[in-house]
């Protein structure tokens, strides 16, 4: 058996065409997940009677179960809910009109929110309590103190963790092929099936995944150095 290096190059070019879609499927859930994570982390830290147990369950469930299961639950569950509500409310809406990629993005966003909430919560708890007390002493409200001092320090300390989450969800987009979404791994399978050169195709897609991951790690390292250079202990 010999490796067809020419086909690796051809597969690389063909697979690279869907890289923008894969990046969109990675960046969107991670950014939305961070927003969800901030809200969930705040509520859990406030220890409210009703919402905290629900959010604890949300975080525990999505961190304790595989992402492929989240995708399948959303893919089969959301259409069922939409159809039931449409029938009950007599709305002219059909679940079949919802793009499949929506289900993938929703599942990944919910998963990212659970992971981000723990990262943000641990980041906030790592900031010395004296920072918040000092903010109160100079007349800042809780939200102002969080926005100006606590969250920036928490995020700066959490950059490596967010980098890991981004790379992890970059890899998780490959699961979208189960729903026939043609991302990197899906196209690699399609390209390889034409002449059964699966080794070459997956070498090509592996190079793409590794290259993107390396770039993200480099950018995160640069950002971490820049942020920590200006973060000298808050107030």
From TrEMBL:
InterPro entries: AA_ABC_transptr_permease_3TM, ArtM/GltK/GlnP/TcyL/YhdX-like, MetI-like, MetI-like_sf. It holds the Pfam family BPD_transp_1. Gene3D superfamilies: MetI-like (1.10.3720.10). It comes from the Bacteria. Its main location: membrane. The chain crosses the membrane at residues 20-43, 55-78, 98-116, 162-181, 201-220. Keywords: Cell membrane, Membrane, Transmembrane, Transmembrane helix, Transport. SUPFAM superfamilies: MetI-like (SSF161098). Residues 19-220 form the ABC transmembrane type-1 domain. It is a multi-pass membrane protein. It is found in: Cell membrane. PANTHER family: L-CYSTINE TRANSPORT SYSTEM PERMEASE PROTEIN TCYM, MEMBRANE COMPONENT OF AMINO ACID ABC TRANSPORTER. Belongs to the binding-protein-dependent transport system permease family. This is ABC transporter permease subunit. It comes from Lysinibacillus pakistanensis. The lineage of its organism: Bacteria, Bacillati, Bacillota, Bacilli, Bacillales.
């Amino acid at each position: 058996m010999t490796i067809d290096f020419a086909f690796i190059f051809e597969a690389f070019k063909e697979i690279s065409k869907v890289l923008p879609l894969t990046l969109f499927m990675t960046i969107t859930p991670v950014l939305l997940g961070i927003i969800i994570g901030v809200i969930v982390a705040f509520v859990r830290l406030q220890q409210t009677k009703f919402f905290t147990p629900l959010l604890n369950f949300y975080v525990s469930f999505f961190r304790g179960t595989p992402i492929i299961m989240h995708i399948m639950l959303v893919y089969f569950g959301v259409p069922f809910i939409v159809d039931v509500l449409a029938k009950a409310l007599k709305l002219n809406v059909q679940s079949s009109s919802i793009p499949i990629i929506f289900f993938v993005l929703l599942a990944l966003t919910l998963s990212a929110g659970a992971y981000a909430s723990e990262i943000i919560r641990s980041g906030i708890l790592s900031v010395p309590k004296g920072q918040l007390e000092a903010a109160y002493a100079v007349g800042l409200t809780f939200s102002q103190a969080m926005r100006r001092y606590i969250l920036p320090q928490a995020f700066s300390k959490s950059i490596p963790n967010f980098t890991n989450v981004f790379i992890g969800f970059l890899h998780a987009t490959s699961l979208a092929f189960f729903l026939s979404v043609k991302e990197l791994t899906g196209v690699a399978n399609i390209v390889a099936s034409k002449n059964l050169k699966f080794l070459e195709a997956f070498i090509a897609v592996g190079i793409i995944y590794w290259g993107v991951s390396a770039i993200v790690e480099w950018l995160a390292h640069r950002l971490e150095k820049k942020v920590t250079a200006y973060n000298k202990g808050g107030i």
